[in-house]
Fold this sequence. Notes:
By secondary structure, the protein is of the alpha+beta class. It has a seven-stranded mixed sheet with strand order 1-5-6-10-9-8-7, with helices on both faces. Strands 2-4-3 form a three-stranded antiparallel sheet. The protein is built from eleven helices and ten strands. Bound molecules: phenylalanine (PHE). Phenylalanine is lined by residues 200, 202, 280, 283, 302-304, 325-327.
Amino acid sequence: MSLAPFLAELDGLVADAGKAFASAADAAALEAARIEFLGAAKGRLKAVQKGLSTVSKEDKPAAGKRLNEVKAQLEADFEAAKARLASAGPATKTGPQFDPTLPGKPLRVGRLHPLSQTIDELKDIMGRLGFTVADGPEIEDEWHNFEALNIPGEHPARDPLENFYLSVAQGQVESRKSKDEGPDIRRSTFDVRPLLLRSQTSTVQIRVMERQPPPVRITSLGRVYRPDAADATHYPMFHQIEGLLVDRHVTMADLKSVLRMFATSYLGKDVHIRFRPSFFPFTEPSVEADMQWSDRWIEFGGAGMVDPNVLRAVGYDPEEVSGFAFGLGIERLCMRRHGITDIREFYKNDVRFLEQF
Ligand code: PHE
């Protein structure tokens, strides 16, 4: 064989092997190509190599040199193909391919609980009416939950069956030297100061007025607790919004205007307010406030002019200042607005209910 056809055979081999290695889609195809071209016994390179012996003596060095180059080229192409398949990862060798055109899994986006949303909105409305938000503890003492609110010891509202009491015993050690120079007397007194879960947000009225002189214009929103059996309209824990305004010359007309603006803002239309005479120990006069809701009057909470005894309890002078207060059920407002018929829905944590808000 002369040199030219031998070199042409080698060129053909380089072209075929390069294509086969580059297009091998998986490890099995690559291995098949390796055996076809580089196989030790029946590989095509081996076959071409056999032809070297028939090349004339003077052409042999050139033919041998080219053969070695081609061999190196084929091996390099094979290694490159192997590296390409390895970097594509095992999923491409076995198993299904990733399909980037498939739609993704939808992410569930969380949201605020409907009551949290209502609370935020009511805070906003009260803010626009000039009331700042005040907070108080949910565990209260009897002074803030009752006494300062003009609810004396024998009042039925203080019945342990009507409240969640927690009793906390506080030990105290008193050291005292008697006047007649007797021995040191160390006395241990046990002062039991009952605490309870607050039954109303009116406690915050007292806490704010104790801290600051008038004028006061606050709102407080939060949980209150009463041992009621749960049914469609009762739950042992619910939320109230309290409003308190104390200043000079505050009248019932101010109370009515604020409640009317509040209701109109929340319900988004012109809402009428009606007062019915009622009784609360901490307001005088006291009223139940109703609002008109699509041709129906619904009760929306208690209100009244702050009782002079309450003003005195916090060191205010009832001759100088007067005030109004109101306390409304937040669940009730939210239920009316959204047509929710059972208060227990708020506390079941059922996503199908919650995701509607
Ligand atoms: N605290 C009363 C209640 O829980 C509501 C109220 C608040 C009434 C303020 C008058 C004034 O029922």
